[in-house]
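Entry 14. Ran structure prediction on the chain below.
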Amino acid sequence: MPPVLEVEAVSVRFGGLQALRDVWLEVREWEIVGLIGPNGAGKTTAFNCITGAQRPDRGVVRYRGRDVTKLAPHKRVALGFGRTFQNVGMVKTETALDNLKTAQHLKAEYSATLGLLGSAMVSMSERALAGRADEILELLGLSGVRNRPVGSLPYGQLKLLELGCALATDPDLLLLDEPSSGMGPDESEQLADRLLALRAELGVTMLVIEHHVPLVTRVCDYVYVLNFGELLTDGPPNDVRVHPGVVEAYLGSPA
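Output, structure tokens:
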């Protein structure tokens, strides 16, 4: 069986800047894989190549053995990709419930015209979308903010709700970009618990960009490290954490 995700020799250049050079990685079924590195290492560019926001100059991205390198982002979502971003990108004036319903737009069983006219089918579909949204809110411990405008929520809850919006697309592969950013130590610990629970309960495979090393060490099965756009090392998280090159990349001096 092929890996869920394969990135093979992906390279990206922006003018005179080599953002990625021959990057390789793979994520297998049910794994939580970490992608770490100092600021400017190329992590987000790699994520953009995986999700279709950036087309690589060279290399291949495969999903379950299928070449998706040139596939548009929305078509990857339809295949089973779900992604969060470093900067939360929800409609701040709408409620948590409405944002989760909007995230399920591919599952709405009616056209825009029927939605404007209204019908029994539209009402049934809306109830189904709301029911799924409530399940996600409960799963993430956010039922209490169901009807609150997103703009009124603290940042930690915003990040969790964004994770919920990604889950609302029923992803097979969940790509999390800095999920613990803006969270305190206790919130990061709770996030780690939730990610492990999501894998156990939903069977979701994950690739995670993360700076919070304790979270990576706790939840990831395998870790890849980027530095200056190249793969520095990879391996089990405890081995990577003490690798001399990784310590030097983060601290700026030899281990």
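Strands lie at 5-14, 17-27, 32-36, 58-63, 66-67, 81-83, 173-177, 205-209, 222-227, 230-235. Will compare against last week's run tomorrow.
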